[in-house]
Design brief:
The complex is a heterodimer. Chain A is mostly helical. Chain A has a single domain, classed as ABC transporter involved in vitamin B12 uptake, BtuC (Orthogonal Bundle). In chain A, 73% of the residues lie in helices and 1% in strands. Chain A is built from 13 helices and two strands, in the order ααααααββααααααα. In chain A, a hairpin with a 2-residue loop joins β1 and β2. In chain B, the strands form five sheets. Chain B has a six-stranded mixed beta sheet, sandwiched between helices. A six-stranded mixed beta sheet of chain B has the order 16-19-20-13-21-22, sandwiched between helices. By secondary structure, chain B is of the alpha/beta class. In chain B, α14 packs across α15. Chain B has two domains: 235 residues, P-loop containing nucleotide triphosphate hydrolases (Rossmann fold, 3-Layer(aba) Sandwich); 247 residues, 3-Layer(aba) Sandwich (Rossmann fold), CATH 3.40.50. Chain B is built from 18 helices and 22 strands. Classes of the chains: A mainly alpha, B alpha/beta. At the A-B interface, α8 and α9 of A face α11, α12, β18, α14 and α15 of B.
Chain lengths: 323, 493
């Protein structure tokens, strides 16, 4: 290692255009909030906002994990099924008498393993992430249906701690929101301040060059898919706790909202570029759209159309900014 | 057809690549275009075929002013470019490749296979080429693929064909075939612009030679009226002794040694040593296996057999990360694909292989990282505004310095440099040689793979020549000459 001495360096100043590019998703969120509030002022009421944040939390947790995956240039379609399977296993364990805390740990553990399996298929099996996770998406969902026999698992709601995870409040803030904030801080540090994150970006930027620079691409990637599975199972615990049951169809198509949040937040689907803050904002945009349109009484059929259009506009704007 | 280019200028950003080039070509001649990498040959040709727009200057074709908007238009007017990396569709047949994008069709869109076949056969006959039209292109040799490219351009009625390093990947026999075809083309009044570094070939095949240096056309001469030495002098612009900086490092003990490295079908029984402070040049024809040897030493590809010793100790390298931890660095031949993350900053690139060294429990010490990058940037004279600039904004030479900085940063004891000056301008080249000397002074053992013979001769303390995957010979600095190396490289004795 070369000796280092102190050299003053100036951080590069971005052009105004850069700032608009970076702030784009945030500005969009503000505009959206203002628009919804003008049409229906009850949107801005604290109870509704807390409600909104709680609705956002599960998608945000999944999207955080997805951000890492997408920065490497990959995709994880299996998150919804991972959520369902790890939740079902947890509910089954509680129903058969396992301590709820242990059961939650079990859920997180299994989620991580399911994710790691994706990672191994992609790295050791050299499969395209889309194909590998498409396959495990149906496998995990199928296993969930086999395990639950297609019925919800109920009778799991006695434990205070278990109920608290999905339904409790800490200092007036819904506990899922607290979990979202803690996860955000930890993952922000992991992605933007730690070598793991640097390597994540490097792999997405140029996988071959990273390998030659001595990065253990396979290990990092497997870790990232495991993280994605972990985050999905955490979201699963919250949902199971809220519903007081594990649904065999839980998490269906959650991957879509998660991917949409990541993309809205400015992370490039081709990899190498992205920010966790962006994903948080992306998740808030999706949540605000959902919540706002519900308040405005827009039919859920139209809601889907609007969501899709918003994604297209966001990506088009993003592309224009980058030119 | 006659093409005349006068006063051509072109800049990319602040980097002026062409600074007034004159070049002309007449029907039926082979005109060699020579110059160092970065002299501007490819840019000039890309301007001729309309890929780039000239900032200034004129192009006339048969006496008429004409600028092509894109390569397709150039092709329609009879100017075609056969690139070094060929555009083939390996999974498709020869016939399909010949007509790709220009299939003969009926008005309803049916492909007229019979007519296509007849035309293709006629063209192949003309050229004296025997290739099965129904074979998949991936089964062909590089030489045969090149014949297809030539046939393709003939079928579009090419009158000027640009060949960029056409023999770089060919065997001796294939070169003979190519030269025969070039003679056939000449007799059909087709003009050929022949870009090559191989002196011997140029003198065998060309009628005129134009030499470019630093974006300027130095001189055009009739081949029979000039000599090898004269051309080299024009290319380099000074005598070779000055071009390669003197090396004074003390050569010490053996640091790195390989014994019997073997990889099936690639190379066999490769044994060599490198001493501290020594620069060992690896010469050989393209495809001889030099790059493959280095890649397997560094753990990118697997070795079937053989041992590697570092400072007398046997080591096993399973992946680049082990190689790096042992103090081996590897500058790959293709920096854009494997050496750099182009969109990322200079700092991110420089610190990448040593990032674990800047972290405590995985947390990056940003300040130490910035200082580290700054130090290396200054030491290597990387020309950039600051270390947060993306490497894609740098010139080839500066990009290469960033790659070198990466490997100097890990404190390499052994540095493998695969074509370290490829695509680097003349000035930066000299800086890179100087840097190599500096590293050697500090006792680093350097392995340099290069296809540039003058470079091999000018920089190496010792030359190892690889021919078809085995060591054909080893020459000391005093023994080594261009002729001896070429003889070994081509399998002669």
């Amino acid at each position: 290692m070369v000796e280092t001495n102190t050299v003053k360096t100036e951080k590069k100043k971005g052009s105004p255009k850069d700032y608009i590019g970076k702030l784009g998703p945030f500005l969009a969120l503000i505009v959206l909030i203002i628009l919804v509030t003008i049409v229906n002022p009850s949107f801005i009421a604290p109870t509704n906002l807390l409600n909104l944040l709680r609705q956002v939390s599960t998608n945000a947790l999944i999207a955080f994990g997805m951000t890492f995956v997408i920065i490497t240039g990959g995709i994880d379609l299996s998150v919804g099924s991972t959520l369902a399977l790890s939740s079902a296993l947890m509910a089954g364990a509680i129903a058969s008498g396992l301590d709820p805390i242990l059961a939650m740990v079990l859920s997180l553990l299994t989620g991580t393993i399911f994710g790691a399996v994706n990672g191994l298929l992609i790295t050791k099996g050299k499969m395209a992430p889309f194909i590998a996770t498409l396959a495990t998406m149906t496998i995990y969902r199928g296993l969930t249906l086999v395990y639950t026999d297609g019925n919800p698992i109920t009778g799991i709601g006695d434990s205070f701690i278990f109920k608290f995870v999905g339904r409790g409040y800490l200092l007036g803030i819904p506990f899922p929101v607290v979990l979202m904030i803690i996860s955000f801080i930890l993952l922000y540090i992991l992605l933007h301040k730690m070598t793991f994150g640097r390597k994540t970006f490097a792999i997405g930027g140029n996988e071959k060059a990273s390998f030659i620079a001595g990065i253990k691409n396979d290990r990092i990637k497997t870790g990232i898919y495991a993280l994605s599975g972990l985050m999905a199972s955490l979201a699963g615990i919250i949902i199971t706790s809220r519903l007081d049951s594990a649904q065999p169809t839980a998490g269906t198509s959650y991957e879509m909202d998660a991917i949409a949040s990541v993309v809205l937040g400015g992370t490039s689907l081709s990899g190498g570029r992205g920010r966790l803050v962006g994903t948080l904002i992306g998740a808030l945009i999706i949540g605000t759209l959902n919540n706002g349109m519900n308040l405005l009484g827009i039919s859920s059929f139209y809601q889907q159309v609007v969501k899709g259009i918003v994604i297209i506009i966001a990506v088009l704007l993003d592309r224009k900014n980058k030119k | 057809m006659e093409v005349k280019m006068t006063g051509i200028r072109k800049s990319f950003g602040s980097n002026s690549v062409l600074r007034g080039v004159d070049f002309d070509i007449q029907a039926g001649e082979v005109h060699a275009l020579m110059g160092e990498n970065g002299a501007g040959k490819s840019t000039l040709m890309n301007i001729l075929t309309g890929l780039h727009k000239a900032d200034a200057g004129e192009i006339s074709i048969n006496g008429e002013n004409k600028r092509f908007d894109n390569p397709k238009e150039a092709e329609e007017h009879g100017v075609s470019f056969i690139h070094q990396e060929m555009n083939t569709w390996p999974e498709m047949t020869v016939l399909e490749n010949l007509f790709i994008g220009k299939e003969l069709k009926t008005s309803l869109g049916w492909v007229k296979t019979k007519e296509m076949r007849t035309l293709a056969e006629a063209t192949f006959d003309d050229l004296g080429v025997k290739i099965d039209l129904d074979q998949d292109v991936k089964q062909l040799s590089v030489g045969q693929q090149q014949m297809i490219e030539i046939a393709k351009s003939l079928m579009t009625n090419a009158q000027v064909i640009i060949m960029d390093e056409p023999t770089a990947a060919l065997t001796e026999r294939e070169i003979d075939v190519l030269f025969k075809i070039i003679h056939t083309l000449k007799s059909k009044k087709v003009a050929i612009i022949y870009i090559s570094h191989r002196m011997e070939e140029i003198f065998k095949i060309s009628d005129r030679i134009t030499v470019m240096r630093d974006g300027v056309s130095i001189d055009t001469a009739l081949t029979k009226e000039t000599t090898n030495d004269e051309v080299v002098r024009k290319m380099v612009g000074r005598d070779l002794e000055d071009y390669y900086p003197k090396k004074h490092s003390k050569i010490g003990e053996v640091v790195f040694e390989t014994k019997g490295l073997t990889q099936a079908n690639r190379f066999k029984d490769i044994s060599f040593t490198v001493k501290s402070g020594e620069i060992v040049g690896f010469s050989g024809l393209m495809g001889a296996g030099r790059t493959e040897i280095m890649r397997s030493i560094f753990g990118i590809d697997e070795l079937d057999q053989g041992d590697i010793y570092l400072e007398g100790e046997k080591i096993t390298i399973k992946s680049p990360s082990t190689a790096i931890s042992k103090g081996i660095g590897f500058l790959t031949e293709n920096r854009k694909e494997e050496g750099l993350i182009l969109d990322y900053s200079i700092r991110d690139n420089i610190s990448l292989p040593s990032i674990d060294g800047f972290s405590k429990k995985g947390l990056i010490d940003t300040k130490a990282e910035i200082d580290f990058a700054q130090l290396l940037m200054e030491r290597l004279h990387v020309k950039a505004e600051n270390q947060f600039d993306s490497v894609s904004s740098l010139s080839g030479g500066n990009q290469q310095k960033v790659v070198l900085a990466k490997w100097i940063g890990i404190g390499s004891k052994v540095l493998i440099l695969d074509e370290p000056t490829r695509g680097v301008d003349v000035g930066a080249k000299r800086e890179i040689y100087q840097l190599m000397n500096e590293l050697a002074d500090r006792g680093v053992a350097i392995i340099m793979v290069s296809s540039d013979l003058p470079e091999i001769l000018g920089v190496s303390d010792r030359v190892i020549v690889i021919h078809e995957g085995h060591v054909a010979g080893e020459l000391s600095k005093t023994e080594a000459t261009e002729e001896k190396i070429m003889k070994l490289a081509t399998g002669g004795y």
